[in-house]
Design goal:
By secondary structure, this protein is mostly beta strands. It folds into two domains: about 180 residues, Immunoglobulin-like (Sandwich), CATH 2.60.40.680; about 160 residues, Immunoglobulin-like. The chain is built from three helices and 23 strands. The strands form six sheets. Strands 1, 3, 5, 6 and 9 form a five-stranded antiparallel beta sheet that branches. Strands 7-8-4-11-12 form a five-stranded antiparallel beta sheet, with no helix packed on it. Helix 1 runs antiparallel to helix 3. The longest helix is centred in the C-terminal third of the chain and has 9 residues.
């Protein structure tokens, strides 16, 4: 990647109509606080504050004009209720005036490769004071090792109560690492692998989805030969994790996926209960009748034959290639009368 994409630099270009004589301050600084959380997860709100500190500034600091660039590959302005810029009263006090706009790269100062947030804040002049002017909010949208998203040195101007410019020192950039959030679990199936038949089914191809009020919001993904799967970057909120396989009752577990939560969520294992051969989410006499009608007939091995997780013959519950007493025993042995989805448990 072009190195320029990893580090942003901006420069002051705004010319204001004001007296030409600048006021020199004994001490001024503009800082960006470290972004939090760091590392952040895809979908997280990344926030950091703009802090000004001044000491013995004649006529005080009464206003600041800032351009803050960001890389849209990795972050986007937040859609949270707090907005992109959250005004803070720590520096100018409660009677401050704060205004901002989100600009495309060609309208930023200077015109460059990245879009920016243009922030203007003003209030009672501060002669010796330190505090935050505003808090920025971004949403993480792509992974980076920590240098891919940086809050750059900003184009900036400070003025005093007479409209004279006040020295505005360079602002050190900040960076944040953005990582994937992954849900991990294992889906087992009762009677699988079908032993001693070496051609029996495997734990591949159980389907996993996330739902919200029954609507699918993420997936499907399919289990591997050990029954494992990864759901990468699921949306935040209260969701239901569901696992299904033809011939089995589904299993479900409610999850709360929180912004700023752990990057890896291990839900553990669940075992799907066999016998729902007609797919009506119940194990009853109708399933027995379906098995009897095809008793001792051959069937496809399902996941072993499907390869890419295609269709499967749910009547052959354990995927051993034949419909026989093994399938009937799974249905009647301990599962009679069950309905799905069953609780998430091994």
């Amino acid at each position: 990647m072009n190195k320029a994409k990893w580090i942003f630099t901006t420069a002051l270009v705004m010319a204001l109509a004001m007296p030409a004589t600048p006021v020199s301050a004994l001490s001024t600084s503009i800082k960006l606080t470290p972004p939090t959380p760091n590392p952040s997860l895809i979908g997280d709100d990344i926030n950091f504050a703009l802090v000004i500190a001044v000491s013995d500034v004649p006529s005080g600091v009464a206003g600041v004009d800032i351009y803050l660039a960001y890389d849209p590959v990795y972050v986007m302005p937040s859609t949270s209720p707090l907005g992109v810029v959250e005004p803070l009263p720590d520096f100018f006090g409660p009677s401050n005036i704060t205004w901002y706009e989100t600009l495309p790269s060609g309208q930023c100062a200077p015109a460059g490769s990245f879009p920016c947030i243009h922030l203007v804040a003003a209030g009672p002049a501060q002669v010796t004071h330190s505090g935050a002017v505003a808090r920025f909010h971004f949403q993480a949208i792509a992974t980076t090792s920590g240098t891919g998203f940086a809050v750059p040195t900003t184009s900036k101007m400070m003025v005093d109560a007479n409209g004279f410019s006040v020295a505005a020192p360079a602002v050190s950039p900040q960076s944040v690492e953005i990582v994937d959030r992954v849900i991990k679990a294992t889906i087992l199936r009762q009677g699988v692998p079908a032993s001693p038949n070496p051609g029996g089914g495997t734990l591949e191809c159980a389907q996993v989805i996330l739902t919200n009020q029954q609507a699918v919001i993420f997936g499907p993904v399919f289990t591997d030969s050990s029954g494992g799967f990864n759901l990468t970057n699921p949306p935040s909120g209260v969701q239901t994790l569901r696992a299904n396989y033809p011939g089995y009752l589904g299993s479900a577990k409610q999850l709360t996926i929180s912004t700023g939560g752990p990057s890896s969520i291990n839900v553990g294992a669940t075992t799907l209960r066999g016998g729902d051969v007609n797919g009506d989410n119940k194990i009853n006499i109708l399933d027995v009748g379906t098995i009897i009608s095809r008793f001792n007939q051959p069937a496809g091995v399902g996941s072993a034959d499907a390869g890419a997780c295609g269709s499967d013959d749910g009547v052959d519950i354990n995927d051993d290639g034949k419909i026989d007493i093994s399938d009937l025993g799974i249905l009647t042995g301990a599962n009679w009368g069950l309905t799905g989805p069953t609780p998430w448990q091994p």
